[in-house]
Design goal:
Blueprint: E1 55-57, E2 60-63, E3 73-76, E4 81-88, E5 94-103, E6 110-115, E7 122-126, E8 132-139, E9 146-153, E10 160-169, E11 171-174, E12 177-180
Antiparallel strand pairs: 1-4, 2-3, 3-10, 4-9, 5-8, 5-10, 6-7, 6-9, 11-12
């Protein structure tokens, strides 16, 4: 949506071609769109090999087995335990937390959830022995700019695993078109 400029030099700042007849991009970059991440979670797939910045409560660790994608996954071992991460968000904004989890025993479910965001704690139970996606949608309070996300195993002698977590702001409609917050 930029403006055609006569004798523009034919290149942008990074050397991408700029047409003398077709409208260029706005600004100094005229290349193809650049994919970025909208995920608010750090270390969402545990590929760093460490739990940080997630925190362990009792049984959480990063393992090189049972990954959904990549080579690493979060494991919650026998007994009660969880991994949590505080994420930074916008107030009065609706977000969807997704993640994949599985358990070694369908009678020992694992919970994907969110708390401390300005509303009631919310979670979804996953009791499958193969990776299954869970999703929780929540809206931050008017004074809340953080939330705590977690994968929690309430009890049992088996293990549970989690991988590929994602937290994004939901798209909103502005002036009849879809926009992202």
């Amino acid at each position: 949506s930029g403006k055609v400029i006569a004798n523009n030099g034919g290149k942008d700042y990074w050397g991408n071609s700029v047409s003398a007849t077709a409208a260029p991009n706005r600004g100094a970059y005229n290349g193809a769109g650049v994919a970025g991440t909208l995920n608010k979670i750090s270390n969402p797939g545990f590929e760093s090999g460490v739990l940080t910045p997630w925190t362990n409560w009792n049984t959480a660790s990063v393992v090189s087995t049972n990954a959904r994608t990549g080579t690493k996954a979060l494991q919650l071992s026998a007994g009660q335990g969880s991994a949590e991460q505080q994420v930074f968000l916008n107030s009065n904004t609706t977000y969807t937390l997704t993640g994949y989890a599985k358990t070694s025993s369908s009678s020992q479910p694992v919970l994907l959830g969110v708390k401390n965001y300005g509303g009631n704690e919310m979670s979804v139970s996953i009791s499958s022995t193969s990776y299954t996606q869970g999703a929780v949608t929540f809206t931050t309070g008017s004074m809340n700019t953080t939330a705590t996300i977690y994968l929690y195993k309430p009890s049992g002698s088996g293990s549970a695993w989690g991988d590929d977590f994602n937290l994004t702001a939901d798209a909103i409609k502005i002036n009849g078109s879809i926009e992202s917050k």
